[in-house]
Write a structure and sequence with these properties.
heterodimer; A: about 160 residues; Glutaredoxin; 2 domains; four-stranded mixed β-sheet; about 10% strand; B: about 625 residues; Rossmann fold; 5 domains; binds flavin mononucleotide
C-alpha cells in the first residue's frame, strides 16, 4: 500500500465515517481496517488521523500496543498455532517449532513469497482439540509434528500469493 | 414484535416455555435431533452431520415428524460430536457423518437405539443412554450455564422458554436498592478471578450521585486455557444481557458495554444478534416493559492484549486508548468509563444474576461454601480424560473434579498437578486433592481459583517448563507502564530459561524469589503483582525438579530440550531411513538396510520428528 490507491483512501474514509456517532471509535476503526486490508501502515494511519483529528502519534501508539494490529501485511495463509496452556501441556511448542523450521520463519514473520505467516496464539478456546492449529479460520484438531509437512504442502498446492 | 408491558412478557414467557418443552417431551408430536454446536464439535464436523440428517429427513418426507436443532456446547468436548434424540433423551457420542445413516435408519425410523454409539462407562463397561446418568454430568449443577446446550442461542423465544427474562421481570417489581441488597445477601462473588463481592461493588456504584453511570461486562477472558466466558456468550448470550440490564437497573445506569476478545468471532456475532433481538422486542431500549427504566447495550472488541482484562486497562481500551492500567483508587465504581461511576463485572457473574432473581436467594445459596456461594464454571483441560466445560457447586473437591467428572488421567499416566488461576495462579499436588474448591481455600493452600481455567498435568510435564511458559506469557503481555513488572518479569524469565538450559546455580533460586517479592509489592496492577505465583508454587511443591535441572543438569520429565538427548537403539533400528529423511537438520546418518542409523547430538535440535516417524520404537530420549 506504498502508494495508496484512490479507492483505498475512499474505503478508509468510509470506515472512519461508520463510527461518527461513537464517542471513542479509534480501536473500532483500526479493527475494521485491519480486517479489510490485513495491516495498518503509516500512510493509512495518517488518513485516519486527518479524518478523526486524533494525532498520528496516538494512533501509532495504539496500533503498536495491540497484537491484533500489524504494520506489515500478513501472508496469504496465516498459521495460528495455539499456545494456550491446554495446548502447551500437550506439546504445542513442538508443533509451532516444526512449522517455523519447515518454513524458515519465526512466529510473527511471513515467508518471502508472501504465502505463510506463523502466529503464536493465546488460547483459541479449542482446548478439547489440543494441540490446535488454525489456518485462515479452519481448525486442525489434535495436531502432531508429523502432520505439519502435509499441511504445508496442502496449502502450497492450493495456490500462491498474488 | 414489541413487548410493551410486564404482563405481555409474562404471557410470552408462558407460551415460549410450553413451546420449548414440547421439543423435549414430544408433546408437539415431533421427534427432535439435537446437535452440539460448540467449537470442539464444529471442528469435528457437526455441520456435516446436520446436513446429512436434514437430507435424510427430506428424502423420507419426514419434515413434519422430525426436527433438527443445533444448540450450544454440551460440555463434554472430548466425546463430541454429540447427537441427542428427543423425547427419548438418547445421547450418541463421537458421531461421524458416516454414522448418521445408521442412527436415522435404526433410531429415527425404527425406534431402536444404536448401542455402539452410546457412552460407555470406563469403570463398569456399561452403556449409558442418557446424558444425566453419565458420571461427567452427575456432580454438575448448571446455574451460570443454565440454558447452554439446551437452547438455540440465536432465538429469543427459546431463551424466554428456558427461564430467560423471568429474572428481569422480578427485578423490575423491586426497588433498585432491594435488588442491590439481594445480590449482597446472595454472597455472589466476582467470577472473573478476583472474587470481590458483587453486591458490594453494586452498592458503591448505587451510592454515587451522577447523571450517568455505566455497566461494563468483562468478556476479555485472557487466561490461556480457559473458555468459560466464551461458552456462555456463545450459548446463551441473552442471559448475560439480562444480567447486565438488571445490574443497570440496580445501580441506576442506562448504558452498558460488552468488551469481548476479537479472538471470539462466534461469541461476538451471537451477542450482537442477541442485542438486536432484545432491541427489536423492547427488552433493551427506552422504557423497558413500561417500567420507565431505559437501557442500551454496546459491544466493543478487544484487540489482543491480555492486560485489557484488568478493569482499568479495559476502560482505557473502550476509550480508544492503549490498554494500560491506572492506580486505584479511585475505583471504577466512583470514577470509571469517561469518569462516570461504572461497575465492571465478568460474563459469568452477570450470567448468574438472572438465576438469583428468578430462583430466589435460598435456591442459590444452597450451593457452595460459607464464604463462596453458588457454583463455578471451569474449563477442564490438559491431561485429563474428559476435557470440557463443567459447572460445579463451590466446595466440590479437586479429586471430584479431576477423577469423578474428569475421568482421571489418560494413557495410564500419573497425576502430577492441577493448575488453576492461569498466569496469576498456582499448582496443587496429589496431597491437596481432597481440598474443597472455593475462593479462600485455594488461596490458603497457595493457589487460587481464578477465572476457571483448570489444567491437569501428568508425569510428562516439567514444572520448571510450565513456570517458564507462564512467565513468557506474562513477559509478553506486560504493558510496560510500571518498571517492576516490565523489568522484573523479564529478569525472572531469563533465570527460568537458564534453569531449563542447565546453566543456573542454586543462588538463582533465591534471586527468583526476591524478584517475585519485588513484583508483588511494587507493581501497578495484579498482572505484575501475581506474576511470580506460578514460580513460587512450583518451587514450593517441586523443589526437587528445580534442583535436578540446576545441580544434576537433568530434566526428570524429559521436556527441556537442552537437557535431553535422543538416541537410536541399534538393535531395534530397522535401518529404514525414515528418521533421517525427516530430520530437518541432517543430524541422522546410516545406510539403508545396512547399518543402524545414528544421531549426531551436536547437530540434533531435539525437535522430535524422528520419534514421530520411527515405526519400530527404536528412538528414545533421556
Ligand atoms: C491482568 C488481569 C487480567 C484480567 N483478566 C480478566 C478477564 O479476562 N476477565 C475478567 O472477567 N476479569 C479479569 N480480570 C479481573 C478484572 O480486573 C475485574 O476484577 C473483573 O472483571 C471484575 O468482575 P467480577 O467481579 O465480576 O469478577 C483481570 C485482572 C487482571 C489484573
Amino acid at each position: 500500500m506504498a502508494h495508496l490507491q484512490e479507492s483505498a483512501v475512499r474505503k478508509i474514509s468510509e470506515i472512519c465515517d461508520r463510527y461518527k456517532n461513537e464517542r471513542t471509535p479509534l480501536i473500532m476503526i483500526l479493527s475494521d481496517i485491519q480486517n479489510e486490508y490485513g495491516y495498518i501502515p503509516l500512510e493509512v494511519q495518517e488518513i485516519v488521523s486527518a479524518k478523526t483529528g486524533i494525532s498520528v502519534a496516538e494512533i501509532y501508539g495504539v496500533v503498536t500496543f495491540y497484537s491484533f494490529f500489524s504494520l506489515k501485511p500478513n501472508g496469504k495463509y496465516v498459521i495460528g498455532c495455539c499456545l494456550g496452556t491446554a495446548c502447551y501441556v500437550k506439546g504445542a511448542q513442538q508443533i509451532i517449532d516444526k512449522f517455523s523450521e519447515m518454513l524458515g520463519i519465526k512466529p510473527g514473520e511471513t515467508t518471502d513469497d508472501g504465502m505463510f505467516t506463523i502466529d503464536a496464539l493465546r488460547c483459541i478456546g479449542a482446548c478439547a482439540s489440543a494441540p490446535a492449529v488454525t489456518i485462515n479460520g479452519k481448525i486442525y484438531a489434535h495436531m502432531s509434528v508429523d502432520r505439519v509437512a502435509g499441511i504445508i504442502d496442502e496449502y502450497r498446492k492450493l495456490g500462491g500469493a498474488e | 414484535m414489541m413487548i410493551k408491558t410486564r404482563e405481555e412478557l409474562e404471557a410470552k414467557i408462558q407460551k415460549c416455555t410450553a413451546e420449548l418443552n414440547s421439543k423435549f417431551d414430544g408433546s408437539d408430536g415431533k421427534r427432535y435431533i439435537m446437535l452440539c454446536g460448540g467449537t470442539g464439535c464444529i471442528a469435528s464436523n457437526t455441520m456435516g452431520i446436520m446436513e446429512r440428517f436434514e437430507a435424510l429427513i427430506a428424502e423420507h418426507g419426514l419434515g413434519d415428524k422430525v426436527g433438527v436443532r443445533k444448540v450450544g456446547c454440551f460440555g463434554m468436548c472430548s466425546q463430541g460430536p454429540f447427537v441427542r434424540i428427543y423425547p427419548e433423551d438418547t445421547l450418541y457420542r463421537l458421531v461421524k457423518v458416516e454414522d448418521v445413516e445408521e442412527i436415522f435408519n435404526s433410531d429415527i425410523l425404527n425406534g431402536k437405539i444404536v448401542d455402539r454409539l452410546l457412552y460407555e462407562d470406563p469403570e463398569t463397561g456399561k452403556k449409558i443412554a442418557k446424558q444425566d446418568e453419565i458420571p461427567f454430568y452427575k456432580k454438575q449443577k448448571r446455574v451460570a450455564l443454565h440454558g447452554c446446550g439446551v437452547i438455540n442461542p440465536e432465538s429469543l423465544d427459546e431463551a424466554l422458554g428456558c427461564g430467560g427474562y423471568q429474572g428481569l421481570l422480578n427485578a423490575l417489581k423491586m426497588d433498585p436498592a432491594d435488588v442491590v441488597q439481594l445480590i449482597l445477601d446472595s454472597g455472589l462473588r466476582g467470577r472473573g478471578g478476583g472474587g470481590f463481592p458483587t453486591g458490594r461493588k453494586w452498592k458503591f456504584a448505587y451510592d454515587q450521585k451522577s447523571d450517568q453511570k455505566y455497566v461494563v461486562c468483562n468478556g476479555d477472558e485472557g487466561d490461556p486455557g480457559a473458555f468459560m466466558d466464551r461458552s456462555v456468550l456463545e450459548d446463551n448470550p441473552l442471559a448475560v444481557i439480562e444480567g447486565m440490564v438488571i445490574a443497570g437497573y440496580a445501580i441506576g445506569a442506562s448504558e452498558g458495554y460488552f468488551y469481548v476478545r476479537a479472538e471470539y468471532p462466534t461469541a461476538v456475532m451471537r451477542l450482537r444478534n442477541a442485542i438486536k433481538l432484545a432491541e427489536e422486542t423492547g427488552l433493551l431500549g427506552d422504557n423497558i416493559l413500561g417500567s420507565g427504566f431505559s437501557f442500551r447495550a454496546n459491544v466493543r472488541l478487544g484487540a489482543g492484549a491480555f492486560v485489557c482484562g484488568e478493569e482499568t486497562a479495559l476502560l482505557n481500551s473502550i476509550q480508544g486508548q492503549r490498554g494500560m492500567p491506572r492506580p486505584r483508587p479511585p475505583f471504577p465504581a466512583v470514577k470509571g468509563l469517561w469518569d462516570k461511576p461504572t461497575i465492571v463485572n465478568n460474563v459469568e457473574t452477570l450470567a448468574t444474576v438472572p438465576y438469583i432473581l428468578r430462583e430466589g436467594l435460598d435456591k442459590f445459596i444452597q450451593y457452595g461454601t460459607e464464604k463462596s456461594k453458588g457454583t463455578k464454571v471451569f474449563a477442564l483441560g490438559g491431561k485429563v480424560k474428559n476435557v470440557g466445560l463443567v459447572e460445579i457447586p463451590m466446595g466440590t473437591t479437586l479429586r471430584e473434579l479431576i477423577y469423578d467428572i474428569g475421568g482421571g488421567i489418560p494413557n495410564g499416566k500419573k497425576f502430577k498437578a492441577i493448575q488453576t488461576g492461569g498466569p496469576s495462579g498456582g499448582c496443587l499436588t496429589e496431597e491437596y486433592l481432597d481440598e474443597p474448591i472455593d475462593f479462600d481455600n485455594l488461596v490458603a493452600k497457595g493457589s487460587m481459583m481464578g477465572s476457571g481455567g483448570a489444567i491437569v498435568m501428568d508425569e510428562d510435564n516439567c514444572m520448571v517448563d510450565v513456570a517458564k511458559f507462564y512467565m513468557e506469557f506474562i513477559c509478553d503481555e506486560s504493558c510496560g507502564k510500571c518498571t517492576p513488572c516490565r523489568i522484573g518479569t523479564k529478569r525472572m524469565l531469563e533465570i527460568l530459561t537458564k534453569i531449563t538450559e542447565g546453566k543456573a546455580t542454586m543462588k538463582d533460586l533465591d534471586t527468583l524469589e526476591e524478584l517475585g517479592k519485588a513484583c508483588k509489592s511494587n507493581s501497578l496492577c495484579a498482572l505484575g503483582q501475581t506474576s511470580a505465583n506460578p514460580i513460587i508454587s512450583t518451587i514450593t511443591h517441586f523443589k526437587d525438579e528445580y534442583i535436578a535441572h540446576i545441580v544434576d543438569k537433568k530434566c526428570p520429565a524429559k521436556v527441556c530440550k537442552s537437557l535431553i538427548k535422543y538416541t537410536i537403539d541399534p538393535d531395534k533400528c530397522r535401518k529404514c531411513s525414515l528418521c533421517a529423511k525427516h530430520c530437518p537438520v541432517g543430524a541422522i546418518t546410516g545406510e539403508v538396510k545396512k547399518t543402524p542409523f545414528e544421531i549426531d547430538s551436536a547437530k540434533c535440535i531435539k525437535c522430535g520428528s524422528c520419534i514421530a516417524y520411527c515405526k519400530s520404537g527404536a528412538i528414545t530420549k533421556e
